[in-house]
Design a protein that fits this description.
Blueprint lengths: L16 H6 L7 H6 L3 H4 L2 H12 L19 H8 L5 H13 L2
């Protein structure tokens, strides 16, 4: 089995040489690895409920009127004319459709 090269201290990573030297973290033995248990067996269910709740808070808030994705075939020259105006071309197409339908 190949051994990993020994890590060396490099300044500029948010810790000092003293911090580096104070760490004593030997590799786990096979016995230690075999004795480990999954977190779900060791931690209370409330821990995971909290994690799930926090994960749901991520991202963009839900829209009151979410858009729907559809497949629509539009002539290439029409798409290119909207794209030529820059970013937001899909929103401009949406607005053009709204105007055409009187919405």
């Amino acid at each position: 089995m190949a051994t990993k090269p020994e890590a060396k201290f490099e300044p500029g990573h948010g810790y000092s040489r003293q911090d580096w030297d104070d760490v004593d973290s030997p590799e786990l033995t096979g016995e230690e690895l075999a004795s480990m248990r999954p977190a779900r067996e060791m931690l209370p269910p409330e821990f995971f409920e909290t994690i799930d709740r926090e994960r749901r808070k991520r991202g963009r808030p839900a829209s009151v009127a979410p858009k729907r994705q559809v497949t629509l075939r539009i002539d290439a020259d029409v798409i290119e004319s909207f794209r030529a105006e820059g970013t937001g071309w899909q929103s401009r197409i949406n607005e053009a459709l709204r105007k055409a339908r009187g919405l």
